[in-house]
Amino acid sequence: MAIGAYFTVFSTEKIVATLGLSKIIGGLFITAPMAALPEVFATWYVARSGQITSGVTSVIGDHAVTMTLAFIPLTIVGMTIDDFQLFWITLSFVAVMPALYAAFIWWGRNGFRLWQVLALPVVYALYLVLLVVWVQPFGTGG
């Protein structure tokens, strides 16, 4: 896993440098999806066997632990905030998504309704629109 992580980050840096994108954009849209692929496959495999709740719960738990124990302390210690607008929008998104998920679990005691399932990707799409249209971090190179 360490070797795969190294090559994922190294490749992202090369792609970002070649395209002239911001490093944070490369991290959000290249490194993060690549890091999530093993979990996506594991969830698909478990959900395919009919254990949907187990699949989703394990992914959420794994990512919560990973973000809390591994990435957030390192990010806080080693990162300077060059674009505060991008920082607070992303931090807000990171807070809103689990809050929505928790609210949907609380409201849908008998399972998720279609509007609840569709609301999460819609919120993610709004986040992407905010990044691309309002923040416009593309091409900053840094």
From TrEMBL:
Localization, UniProt: Membrane
Keyword vocabulary terms for this entry: Membrane, Transmembrane, Transmembrane helix
Database matches in InterPro entries: NaCa_Exmemb, NCX_ion-bd_dom_sf
Occurrences of domain Sodium/calcium exchanger membrane region (ranges): 2-132
Transmembrane regions listed in the UniProt entry: 24-47, 59-81, 87-107, 114-135
One Pfam family in the UniProt entry: Na_Ca_ex
GO biological process, one term: transmembrane transport
Superkingdom classification of source: Bacteria
Protein name: Putative membrane protein
Native source species: Limimaricola hongkongensis DSM 17492
